[in-house]
């Protein structure tokens, strides 16, 4: 029982830390969008946007990039003109082509 209590305490600490980290990493202005099996926090400002995906592990980069493009287009209502991956993990910056 003592071993289970220690495991439970560690699991709860990890859960609380994860919630805190997610809260720090996403902006209050970000829109959560799911695309291509990935979840993104998308921030838009004028004709630019940033999409962040906090998935860890091995990914197919081409699939992630296309999912980021679709997530930005969904959140902004605009077409993506350019899409560039930042040095940060799974973060993409886009310029937008808005019709109106």
Q: Could you explain the architecture of this structure?
A:
The chain is of the alpha+beta class. The chain has 2 helices and 5 strands; from the N terminus they run αβββαββ. It has helices spanning 2-25, 61-76, and strands at residues 31-35, 38-45, 48-52, 79-85, 91-97. Strand 2 (38-45) and strand 3 (48-52) form a beta hairpin. The model is unreliable at 13-26 (pLDDT under 50).
| N-to-C span | 63 Å
Q: Output the helix-strand order.
A: HEEEHEE
Specify the structural class. alpha+beta
Beta fraction: 25-35%
| Outline type | elongated
Question: Any idea what the radius of gyration is?
Answer: 17 Å
The number of distinct helices, counting runs of at least 4 residues, comes to: 2
Low-pLDDT windows of residues:
13-26
How many strands in all? Answer: 5
Major sheet attributes:
5 strands, antiparallel
**Quaternary status:** single chain
Helix content: 40-55%
Q: Numbering strands along the chain, what is their spatial order in the largest sheet?
A: 1-2-3-5-4
**Mean residue pLDDT:** 80
């Amino acid at each position: 029982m003592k071993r289970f209590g220690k495991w439970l305490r560690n699991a709860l600490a990890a859960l609380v830390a994860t919630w805190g980290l997610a809260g720090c990493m996403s902006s209050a202005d970000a829109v959560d969008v799911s695309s291509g099996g990935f979840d993104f926090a998308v921030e838009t400002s004028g004709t630019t946007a940033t999409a962040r995906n906090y998935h860890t592990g091995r990914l197919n980069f081409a699939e992630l990039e296309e999912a980021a493009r679709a997530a930005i287009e969904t959140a902004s209502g605009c077409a993506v003109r350019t899409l560039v991956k930042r040095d940060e993990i799974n973060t993409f910056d886009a310029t937008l082509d808005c019709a109106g």
